[in-house]
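INFO  loader      accepted 1 record
INFO  loader      residues=212
INFO  predictor   begin
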Amino acid sequence: MIRVVIANDKPLLREGLRRILEVHEDIDVVAEVGDGQGAINISRKMPFDLLLMNLNMPGTSCLQTCSVIRREYPAISILILAFETSDQRIDQLLKLGVAGYLSKDIDPQHLIDAIRKIHRGEFILSPEVMERHREQHTKTELRINNFGLSSRELEILNYVVKGASNKDIGLALFISEKTVKNHLSNIFKKLEVSDRTQAALKAVRTKMVTLE
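INFO  predictor   done
INFO  writer      dumping tokens
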């Protein structure tokens, strides 16, 4: 049996969720609360498996509620329902260890499936949130792999790997040698190296630049 607590500040929505869940024999709605503090209080009074919580509620915020419950009762899984798909809010909640983040317009059967999967130890994100999270993660990875180098700095680093002099790089990119030197100084700082040779070796080793 999956014991569920519903946390939602709208009585009508709480009732709707209860009716959706309780028609399934393996799910038992053991309590309903109207705010985050209520969710914290009920977690301290009775055992349950999953908190089905609205993202935006008055009083104690969703983030504060999740933080307290995850710290005090890590065995309780938390599933967030929201219209909002803010990358920052999602990242904050995922770092706190919520088990799922779904759109409020999810159909009832998908909600039931999500609750069952979470109870089995799976992690759930709605497709639109998953896509945005994947895009953000990819952008972060690229930023890390490139050590924060700009497109111009990467271009200059390519020439450095090929053995081009500052004068050659300036002529190729239609910039002055002084500008090349300034870019190289920034490149060395970001790569945490002290000269062109070290920069070239690190660029090849980390696959920022490939040797043709």
